[in-house]
């Protein structure tokens, strides 16, 4: 007899570190999804900024199918053509000279942090080991990255955290000046904080970080796992600011839904990662690389990148109209198609309460912390889907306000 999984099976069989919504999507096309009962949803969540080209985009599906008939996995005892093609394309489109491929954003950030420490050790000595990050930042779930991230709730209860990690205040250069010194090996920052509330860095802040890192011979690491790959309306957010990092990490939208990550850096820094210093079993996997290359080549086009800003304005227009009617938001912010709506003071900490109502109305959204409603849809979401999805979201907001 055929077995159809239910939401109750999650509670029965899965480790309880997630609390998924009650519906189980089973099919997707573009920016729409259908659940087990055939009910349709408009997707403003995008798999948490992952589904950069929506669901089952034909270019990605074709890339996966073609590669699936050729080669899946070799390990890094060998290299493969898709991995080399992806690395070449990433290097040629960015500041970087070298690429390291892995399976996730957490892995990419782990590699970036280890690279920075190894570079400082080999270049200056063991004393230069301090890493500065920022409060409310998020860099992954490995023990190193969760410790560098500026949200203690994610590292509490797991024992002593790694040493040499300091946290400054985002968009506050003075707080960095108080911490940085000649023992600093790196400053790690999200050009736009994602999990911390969809907060873009100011131009002055990133320029100041670059100057401070140069003055103290420290590396500037950009975590663009969530903010990159077309989401800001440029291929990476650093291109909007014109402030170039030493190391950059990417994942999420890079694979369009297929697990993949990348770390990009310069020749001078990359050379300290000699044979055996770091690795990833699935890094450079042929299937993942083929899909990521197809996503990269599709996203990095004027048609897609220019369309991101048009869609951004449409989201803002509709969120403004909802707010004019219901007064539920204090501020709408973000870049491109990573948008956050901060809750008004009377609804402080209640962003998550909108999500189940939105599902009931047929639209999927996210939160970024307890106080920000987040939207990270496909970069090519049809404008009519934005309009319809916003109409559904407005109904959810109306119910939220009525029952608040």
Helix share, percent: 25-40%
Query: Counting H and I runs of at least 4 residues, what is the number of helices?
Result: 14
Beta-strand portion reads 15-25%
Task: Name the strands of the widest sheet in spatial order.
Answer: 4-12-11-10-7-5-6
SS-based structural class?
alpha/beta
GO molecular function: identical protein binding; N2-acetyl-L-ornithine:2-oxoglutarate 5-aminotransferase activity; pyridoxal phosphate binding
Protein name: Acetylornithine aminotransferase
Modified residues (N6-(pyridoxal phosphate)lysine): 252
Cofactor: pyridoxal 5'-phosphate
Description:
The chain has 404 residues and is an alpha/beta fold. It folds into 2 domains: 7-56 and 302-403, Aspartate Aminotransferase, domain 1 (Alpha-Beta Complex); 71-299, 3-Layer(aba) Sandwich (Aspartate Aminotransferase, domain 2). The chain is built from 14 helices and 17 strands. The strands form 4 sheets. It has a 7-stranded mixed beta sheet, with helices on both faces. A hairpin with a 5-residue loop joins strand 8 (192-193) and strand 9. Pyridoxal 5'-phosphate binds at residues 138, 223-226, 281. Pathway: Amino-acid biosynthesis; L-arginine biosynthesis; N(2)-acetyl-L-ornithine from L-glutamate: step 4/4. It is found in: Cytoplasm.
What is the compact description of this entry?
The protein has 404 residues and is α/β, with parallel strands linked by helices.
Topology:
Blueprint: H1 7-13, E1 25-29, E2 32-35, E3 40-43, H2 46-49, H3 58-68, H4 81-93, E4 98-102, H5 105-123, E5 130-134, H6 143-148, E6 165-168, H7 173-177, E7 184-189, E8 192-193, E9 199-200, H8 203-215, E10 219-223, H9 238-241, E11 247-250, E12 261-265, H10 267-270, H11 286-299, H12 302-326, E13 329-335, E14 338-343, H13 354-361, E15 363-364, E16 366-367, E17 372-375, H14 383-403
Parallel strand pairs: 3-15, 5-6, 5-7, 7-10, 10-11
Antiparallel strand pairs: 1-2, 2-3, 4-12, 8-9, 11-12, 13-14, 14-17, 16-17
């Amino acid at each position: 007899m055929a077995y159809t999984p239910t939401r109750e099976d999650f509670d029965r069989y899965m480790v309880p570190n997630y609390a998924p919504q009650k519906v189980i999507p089973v099919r997707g096309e573009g920016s729409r999804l259908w659940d087990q009962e055939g009910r349709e949803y408009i997707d403003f969540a995008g798999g948490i900024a992952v589904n950069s080209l929506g669901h089952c985009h034909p270019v990605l599906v074709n890339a996966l199918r073609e590669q699936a008939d050729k080669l899946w996995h070799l390990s890094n005892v060998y290299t493969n053509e898709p991995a080399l093609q992806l690395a070449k394309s990433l290097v040629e489109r960015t500041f970087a000279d070298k690429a390291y491929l892995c399976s996730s954003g957490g892995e990419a950030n782990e590699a970036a942090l280890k690279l920075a420490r190894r570079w400082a050790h080999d270049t200056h000595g063991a004393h230069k080991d301090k890493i500065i990050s920022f409060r409310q930042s998020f860099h992954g779930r490995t023990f190193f990255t969760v410790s560098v991230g500026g949200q203690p709730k994610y590292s509490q209860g797991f024992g002593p955290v790694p040493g040499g990690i300091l946290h400054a205040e985002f968009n506050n250069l003075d707080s960095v000046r108080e911490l940085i010194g000649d023992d600093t090996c790196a400053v790690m920052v999200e050009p736009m904080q994602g999990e911390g509330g969809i907060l873009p860095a100011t131009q002055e802040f990133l320029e100041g970080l670059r100057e401070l890192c140069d003055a103290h011979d420290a590396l500037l690491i950009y975590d663009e796992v969530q903010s990159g790959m077309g989401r800001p309306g440029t291929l990476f957010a650093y291109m909007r600011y014109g402030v170039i990092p030493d190391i950059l990490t990417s994942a999420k939208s890079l694979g369009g839904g297929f697990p993949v990550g990348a770390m990009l850096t310069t020749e001078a820094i990359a050379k300290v990662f000699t044979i055996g210093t770091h690795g990833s079993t699935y890094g450079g996997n042929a299937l993942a690389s083929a899909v990521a290359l197809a996503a990269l080549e599709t996203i990095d086009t004027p048609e897609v990148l220019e369309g991101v800003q048009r869609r951004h304005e449409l989201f803002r227009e509709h969120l403004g109209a909802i707010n004019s009617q219901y007064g539920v938001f204090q501020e709408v912010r973000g870049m491109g198609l990573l948008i956050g709506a901060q809750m008004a003071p009377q609804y402080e900490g209640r962003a998550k309460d909108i999500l189940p109502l939105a599902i009931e109305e047929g639209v999927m959204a996210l939160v970024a912390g307890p106080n920000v409603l987040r939207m990270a849809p496909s970069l090519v979401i049809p404008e009519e889907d934005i309009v319809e999805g916003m109409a559904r979201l407005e109904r959810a907001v109306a119910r939220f306000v009525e029952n608040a």
